[in-house]
Amino acid sequence: MTNQTANPSSLNIPPGYLNIMGYVDESQVNGPGCRAVVWVQGCLRECPGCFNPASWSFETNQLVTVDELADKILSNPRNEGVTFSGGEPFWQAIALTQLAKKLKAAGLNVMSFSGFTLGELRAENAPAGAQELLEQLDILIDGPFVESLAINSPHSPVSSRNQRVHIFNPAFKDKISWASDQIEIHIFKDGSRLITGFQGQMNLSEG
Ligand code: SF4
Q: Does 19 contact ligand 1 (Cβ within 6 A)?
């Protein structure tokens, strides 16, 4: 793990914007049901074996407004919820909270991964807006990926044994439908492909 005391929340992302690595609709392997997935850009941890090393940089990748992203997610009626992955979602907690509020108001559920533990997210030195984002979540998967504890199994909803599934909304108690060994391939109209799975990875290849 690298320096977690630096605070990239202060990086120059304009208020009301998110810096994202990628996005997909209608995923069925990144949480319960059918959902959009937003991969945010930027993570400090550099976990060995990370599925998305391209997400580590905090340089601007794709800047999108919260409103644009909310409209995009809501424009697909098959999206029942959204999952925030990364990268580290909690470094952009303020804008993700705004997005989560808009989506919840429209009846969608919200889940997030984090490399922080729940205890760290509730601590005083947590990233800005962490508590507010936690209040919006139906489900949190917390803890960093630890390669020596990796698990790839149809019976595990986490990809590393130290991670925990926190179900804040009891309606999701019996809806742990995903498993860490699942992947899916999205093929887009331009021929590009996106391969993703519950391990959180997002591999994009051009057509
Ligand atoms: S596994 Fe997750 S927490 Fe670890 S470096 Fe990759 S994106 Fe960051």
A: no
